[in-house]
Every structure is written in C-alpha cells, then in structure tokens.
Specification:
With about 375 residues, the protein is of the alpha/beta class. The chain is about 55% helix and about 15% strand. A seven-stranded mixed sheet has the order 3-2-1-4-5-7-6, sandwiched between helices.
Length: about 375
C-alpha cells in the first residue's frame, strides 16, 4: 500500500453524510484510472505464457485440479461476512452493508438456487468427462507394453534403421531444427547427428527415452500430444514422424493432424514415413510389433493433411537400401510388369503386394 496523501477528518460531532461522500468521491477521482479490459487473441495469450506454478504437463492433471476447485466453490449462498478497513466511518459502512444484505437476501437466494443447480450439473459433467478420459487412456495406451524390450529382442537392427533414415534427413533444409515426434529408439536422431543436423526428439515412453539417453541422443520425455498442445502456434518449421497413426485410433490421429496444422509455421516441412499397407513385406514388418494397431493408407493421410490446410502434399514409395538390392524382389517386379501387359488387373495387384515396405509423405504448411 502506498502512503496516504490526505485523511478525511470529521471536525464536528454531527455527521454530514453528504460532505463525507463528496470527499470520498473526490479522493476516488484523484486515483489513476484502470485500463479498460480487452480480450486477447490465442496467439497473444501464448506469448504471455503460463504463470509460474500453473503449468500442467498433462491436461488431465489440470482437469483434476479444476474439478477439486469446482467442488469447493460450487455451493454459492447469500451468506458473507461484512467488514471494512475504514477506521472512522467503518461502523457506518458496515451498518449500510448489513441493511442492504438483509433487504437483498430474498432476491439473492432466488438467483443462487438456480446458480447452485447449474453448478452441480456442470460439475457432474466434468466428473463424467474425467472418468471417460481415464477409461479411454487405459484402453488406447499401447505404451504399457515394454517396447524397448521388444525392440531389443525382435526389432530391426538399430544401425540398419539409421541407414534408412539418412536419406530422409537430406530432405530437410540444413538450417532448420527438426522435431522428431514419437522418436522411439532415436534412429532418426542418430541419423541427424551423423549428418550434422540439429534435431530434438519427443517421446512419451520413458523406457524408450532411457534407450535414447544411453546413446546420448537429444530427446525429452513428454507425451507427444502435450508437447504439441503447449507449443506456440505457427512455430515449428520441420517435423519428422515415423509410423504416424499406426499406434492410435482414427479420432486421435485426426487430432494429431489438426495440431500439426495449427503448430507448424507457414512453409514448414512435414515428412512422414509409414508402412505401406498392401505390401507383404511392410505388413509383415509392422505386425511383428505388438503395439501397432493398424496401417494407414497413404491416400488417407494425404486427404487428412490437405483438409487441415497443408499444401503440396505428395506421397511416394520409399525403397530402402536393403530392398533395392534384393534379387527376389527384383524378379517379382519384373514378373508384375509382364503380367500387367497380359492381365493388367493381376499385374497391378502383384505390384502392390511386392511394393516397398514403406511410403513417404511430404507436405508444406
């Protein structure tokens, strides 16, 4: 509190209420006026940041805290304490407030009955939503399986996957930091380090994060959706995702794509690498992993990206070095070409079956 410049004094035993109120109004008018409230855009709010102590790593934690707060303040009543800090006219102020409260009590209670009923319904809806989110997470979280142990026993050779990723690293601009969402064991991060590129991984499975850290790879242990939700709008310039949507349901995939459209900077480059669904080799490699739920057709990803505002969305088969040197695959492709001339339908089907294991999607925001 600042120093008091002037004290209102009562010079006589009789109270002149009108004069007192005029003096109070004069004092109030002498104080600086508060600026008019203005709503901020989402971009301005993001730039202001979240006050210290109010950051929730997981939005579910924030919902739990809000429910606790709502339970405390949902029951509103007309009962409130009447007090004042004015030492001289305080008794008069308290008397006036008590009289007003007594006369307004009937009208306040009528309003508060409706408000209490509304608060109860909102609180019930929030609690049901909280339960549904918990149930969905328990059903749709494949990370409960020990993927790190699976990769160690049955996964592809780490260095072979790194070699596959090297060609993808070259597609990104050399001066941009690449965000590797769902970074897994860190094969892409290792390839970026070998090429001298700046990259940062985001992985929600703490066991895979530990595997990355043993290789001194730059990765943060954070749920990928939380990372996108907390990231500033239009701020990410380069993103790579391996196996997008193969471990999530359609609604979650759509939500991830919408977040990518919101958080990527104009002109930012997004590259995806997924298993090709009709390829025998891609299907066999994918479904060996027990955490993979389904394969996504490239045309489905192209459609969703274009719907969310991405431009120049293109997909193509991605042939790894091992597949390009496989003599049996080369013989099958030649057979498919001969069959296409004689039986186009059968030849096309065979070509799909012996297609490379992966396809690559490139999109600009």
């Amino acid at each position: 509190m600042g120093e008091v410049d002037e004290v209102i004094r009562i010079e006589s035993d009789e109270l002149d209420v009108k004069k007192i109120m005029e003096d109070i109004q004069r004092r109030v008018d002498s104080y600086p006026r508060a600026t008019q409230y203005q709503e901020l855009s989402s971009e301005e709010l993001e730039e202001l940041g979240i006050p210290e102590g109010e950051f929730y790593e997981d939005p579910l934690h924030e919902l739990s805290a809000v429910i606790q707060l709502a339970r405390t303040f949902s029951e509103v009543t007309g009962e409130y304490s009447v007090a004042t800090r004015k030492p001289l006219i305080g008794p008069l102020v308290v008397l006036v407030k008590k009289v007003l409260r007594r006369f307004m009590r009937v009208y306040m209670d009528a309003v508060f009955v409706q408000q209490r009923e509304f608060n109860r319904k909102i609180l019930d809806a929030m609690e049901r939503l909280h339960e549904l989110i918990l149930r969905e997470r328990s059903m749709l979280n494949p990370g409960r399986l020990d993927r790190a142990a699976f990769f160690e026993r049955w996964g592809e050779d780490f260095e072979e996957v790194v070699s596959r990723m090297e060609a993808i690293v070259e597609l990104f601009p050399p001066d941009k930091e690449i965000i590797n969402l769902f970074s897994g064991r860190g094969e892409f991060l290792k390839a970026c380090g070998g090429k001298g590129r700046r990259a940062k991984g985001v992985e929600g499975d703490e066991r895979l994060v530990a595997a990355c850290q043993t290789r001194s790879l730059p990765v943060m242990n954070l749920d990928e959706l939380v990372f996108l939700e907390k990231t500033l709008t239009s701020s990410l310039e380069a993103i790579f995702i391996y196996e997008l949507g193969e471990r999530m349901g359609p609604l979650q995939l759509r939500y991830v794509v919408s977040l990518l459209g919101e958080k990527m900077a104009p002109g930012g480059l997004l590259i995806l690498l997924n298993h090709f669904p009709t390829s025998l080799f891609g299907g066999e490699a994918a479904y060996r992993d027990p955490t993979i739920l389904r394969l996504i057709h490239p045309q489905a990803l192209v459609f969703m990206l274009e719907e969310m505002g991405f431009a120049s969305v293109q997909w193509r088969h991605f042939e790894s070095g091992e597949e390009s040197k496989d003599k049996e695959i080369e013989d099958l492709l030649q057979m498919a070409e001969r069959m296409e001339r004689e039986r186009p339908d059968l030849g096309t089907a065979l070509r799909e079956l012996v297609a490379p294991s992966f396809y690559l999607v490139q999109a600009r925001r």
